[in-house]
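request received
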Amino acid sequence: MAAEHAAAVHDPNIGCTGLDHRKMGMWAFLGSECMFFGSLIGTYLAYKGKSINGPGPHEILNIPLTSVSAFVLLMSSLLMVLALAAVQRNDMKWGKIWLFMTAVLGAGFVGFQIYEFTHFVHSGLTLQTNLFGSTFFVLTGFHGAHVTGGVIWLLAMWVLAVRGKLGPQDSLKVEICGLYWHFVDIVWIVIFALIYLIP
Amino acid sequence: MATHAAYMAGTKMSAGSVIWSWITTVDHKRIGLLYGASAFFFFLVGGIEALIMRLQLAQPDNTLVSAQRFNELFTMHGTTMVFLAIMPMSAAFFNYLIPLMIGARDVAFPRLNALSYWVFFSGALLLHLSFVAGTVPDGGWFGYANLTSNQFSPTHSIDFWMLGLQVLGISSLMAGFNFIVTIINMRAPGMTLMRMPLFVWMSFVVQFLVVLAFPAITVALILLMFDRFFGTLFYAPAAGADPLLWQHLFWIFGHPEVYILILPAMGIVSEVLPTFSRKPLFGAPVVIYSGIMIGFLGFGVWSHHMFSVGMGPVADAAFSISTMLIAVPTGVKILNWIGTLWGGRIRFSTALYFSLGFIAMFTLGGLSGVMHASPPVDLQQTDSYFIVAHFHYVLFGGSIFGLFSGVYYWWPKMFGRLLDERLGMVHFWLMMIGFNVTFFPMHFLGLIGMPRRIYTYAPDLGWNFWNLVATIGAFVIVLSFLAFIWNVIKTTRSGARAPADPWDGRTLEWTIPSPPPVYNFAVEPTVHDRDDFWIQKYGDGHGTPPRKPVPPAHVDPASIHMPPPSYWPILLAAAFFVTASGALVSIYQVILGGFLTLYCMIRFMLEYHHQTDVGPAAGGHH
Amino acid sequence: MRKSLLARIPTALLLLAATLLLSSCGWSLWDSPMTTVRPKSGFGRMTNEIFLLISWWTLGIGLAVEAVLLWVCFRYREKPGRPIPKQVHGHTALEVSWTIAFAVILLIFAIPTIPVIFKTQEAPAATALRVDVGGRQWWWEFKYPDFKVVTANELHIPAGQMVAFSLHAPDVIHSFWMPQLGGKRDVVPGRVNRIVLEPDGPGEYPGQCAEYCGVSHANMRFRVVVHTKADFEKWVADQQKPPVQPTDPLAQKGQELFAQSACVGCHTIAGVSGGVLGPNLTHFASRKTMGANLMANTPANVAKWIENPGHMKPGVLMPDLGMRGEQTTALAAYLLSLK
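response:
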């Protein structure tokens, strides 16, 4: 108790559970995000197979290509872990490299998505074509927007690090970004399985 | 902050610096007052909307307002009362009281807290700009698809509603994260979860409901927005879509929402009754557990709003059973409250009267709710005035009465003055009578077949008399409000000063001055029990003697670091408003707003990142 | 002084409550045309029985709880000189008991409820009369597929036979409600809902849409006429006949006008026009009301409607075709000759 209070007295961000407020806040946010993506995924599943015209998923989805982009996103999570570890041990050279690379891989994933979306539009699947078009683009689009937000966050941290304004004392902020990043990755695994893998 | 210190010391500040101090405040108490004032204002707006409807319905075949105008009125009345009156009034209490009751100096994220308020403000503004634009929302507060599609609602009316609700939802979500962290992580030493006051517990459950339920309506509204702006097919039956998707998503939000509306009032009542009975809440752990159960079960009953849509007997039966199940934890609380009064020494203050009124009215509303839980019965009652009666009993007789109980109870703490008890009694009795005269007859009207949401009715259906009675009751409610407003005006100038503990209370907020200093507690309290303050005064009757009050430590206020004010919350909210309203104007405004929002977000985050704690509570400026 | 005035208020309130409650015992209230508590079909009776069961229990519980509340407030009110009361924290046995009691009472409601849910949603027998109900902004179409009869806004059904309603909505969600005959069922675009019921005996009842469906939702009403079997067969036969040829010169002029105007784009009069956007008018004059049970089917009302439909029914989809004076009188005469 006393040690926690000592910590609390010194760091206003550590609360009576010994946890940082901001980390807890991120977890609360991720809880709501579960319901957010859950509702979007539920909508996709409710309308699966109900389109009255094509093209349908089996005609247009490119599973091999999307598997590569899924792998890219997964790898970015690994790099995020490495970034956090580097910042924590005050190895800011590698901290900057891994933060930047995570952002690059994330941007790469978004790039794949943009390619996929434009390809679909040229193949005759738009938001307005059928229920598959509406649900697919909205679900994966919002996920992509979340990834984009994460990329901006990562780049912002990278810029701060480059300017010497991010160090081991900020490792919690990197950790929190990591929590968000891993969550977005996990959501993709679920979406990928439901849209691309399950017939 | 010099301005805040000046305000607290009563020295004169220029009007400009007063306004600036309120705009940039991050003090949870002030934010609470901002929410409270806004909520009261919108309660009056929603009330006027109701009065016009009641005047129209006082007679059959009436032509006071057109059909279109009436449909706008019931849409705005519902939306306003739910999102702009009851929720922010509850937020006012969360903001003001939660830190005080758990022995903290502020919430976990003070600037996020201010941001929540200003985003709420901009959402309310966006919704009401529809009046200026002449396209007032007219799809009902529940906006069922596919009436809300472009085909059947071609004007911007639904867009204002949709965007306004999205903005308000963001505000509530941010506040939800803030209070979850605050309650879990900022309790004073010794305050275990089970020692938290009941108001904090009920508010805690509410924050989880907010955080988990609002995303469902966010998605429902996103799908609607995409249908209306981008031509998607989510609610387009012609493309094979099911309009019931909206109903499911809306009610997955909507049912937890009604618990969001009632639990804070239940929390307030659970504080007021023990104080004025001079006994602890009877079965406090059970009341806490039933609150938690309601939170869980509340996510499993949503389709009881859809018994007439044709989900099939299995779904109907399942939701009927889950709805009856949730009646158990809701109902037993009433007995716990009565058990608190039993054997007590009851002092009849206005605050207590409103809590008693809550119990009496919520009981009736809850019982009519049990009737709706049976689908065969509900097939006659749903979409009739019987339902209107039910939810007004629980939301007005319940939530509003409970919130007024809180107003009279905590007013002295917030403003340092007592409200006049005589005028309070006039307010209470007029409201009690007016409320019942307005809404009890609606049970009859529903049972004799009057549907909801109709702007007029034929004269030969037997509905004339009770409609007239209900309208008369509505004006009695108006009188009760005038009594309250007069009470506030009168006591602001010349009310009796309130001591720290005017009611002989039981919880931590009564241990500090009225109104509290900006830093709340000079010394962080240590808590040994639930109702720790009472036990400190009187002992617990089981062997623990009263504790001698610790003489207030001499603490230099200058040494207490409070978060400095900030203008980024209001700027970020304004940028967000530009983005959201841009959807009604042009894509360029949306893009501009988007960049502004991003910019403000980054500056908001960086302000924290670069911040060194700036000086004393009584001094420094950022 | 203050005490006695304020002390009178609780009494006044109790009197008011008693008045409100007792007034509900007035017989005429419950016999209103749209009443839900005087069921006239088996379906209505099944659900009304559960309603009464729950009502009596909840009335009793409500009175008991309010009485206890009032008594507790009186008995334990503060009196000078009383010590601080015993700080009772709870009573586990009591709390468990009343929780169980609540659950048992709810079981009493659930037990009859579940079977009735299933019974009232059973598939109709093959001998049931089929009626296709189309709910549209803001009128009702009734089709009898077995008899090839199409009509609007006035539903005719026989007593003593199961009627299976199939509910369709071409536009938005509506709700089909005949309160005296039973509960409502929503009419949802993209799906076909069903109500099955057997009316007891002959009678006439109003019905109304019960799901907000746009600006004239309040005006989307209808009439139900329950006939004896013989009378129903006669009604069907009359509806199946081709439309009466007008003999009155004014009505003949009206027929000419109808056939030449845009009316034919929306309305069907068998042998004359085939529009399906608006109500079928073949036997328009056989209906007692018009505009979806909005007003009596009189020459003056028909003429007013044709001249300015939006005035009688805000937002109505029927346009003002610019007909005036003698034109509308002729049209009204024609339409009211279509028995």
